[in-house]
Amino acid sequence: MSFPAPADAITGTAWITPLAAASRTRVDRVRFEPGARTHWHRHPLDQVLVVTEGTGYLQRRGEPATLISAGDTVRVAAGEWHWHGATDSTSMTHLAIEEILADGSPTEIGEPADVPAVTRTVLLDQHLPEPRLVGHVEVRRITIAPHHSPGPHTHNGPVFGSIEAGSAIYRIEGEPETVLNPGDVFYEPEGTPVARFDAQGEGVTFLACFPVGPGETPRLDPVEMSG
User: What is the pLDDT of residues 103-116, one digit of tens each?
Assistant: First the structure.
C-alpha cells in the first residue's frame, strides 16, 4: 500500500510504497511527481538510492546538484546532508535502501531544497590509449536518414558523441552490438573499425566531437570488414 510522503519532509507530491522491512534494513519505493523533492536531510546510517524510472536530481551539501536517471545507483554516507527528487518536468521513482539503528534513531529533516540553478553530470570519462597532441576540436551535428548507414569505417582520431534524436544500431569491432538512444554517449577509438552505425526507422541525429592534431582534418575512411 502506498501513502503520501510527509508534508514536513517534502516539497510537492511524492508517494512511498514500503517493500521490505527487517530488523536493520528498510526498502521503500518512492515516486516523486514533477517538481517534487525532499527537504535537506541526513540519515544516521548509510542509504542507497536506485533510480528505476524517470529523471531527477541529487545534491549533497557544498556540491552542485547532479542529474540522476533510470539505472543510476547512488550511495549517501551516514550523516551526509543531501536532498533528492524529480525535475520540474519529469517524474522520478527510486528505491530507497536504508540501514536502521537498533535504537530507531530517525532521519534528521532540515530546510526545503531550492531548485538547482546549475547541474553537472559526467556522461563520459574516457581515457585514451596513449597521449595525443590536439591542435583543434571540431564539433559536428550529424543526421543519418532512416535505415541508412555510413558503412564500416575508421576515423583518424578519437570521436566522442552524444545522441540527440532517433536511434542507431552501434557496434565497435570486438565489442557487443548495442542500440544508442537520445542521451546516450559513445566513444570511437582512433583507427578502430566502427562496424555499424545504422540508423533505425526514425533516423538518428547526434553531436560528434573530433579532437585532431595541428593541421589535420577529421576524416572517415571506409574499411572492409571480414566475415
Answer: 778 899 999 998 87
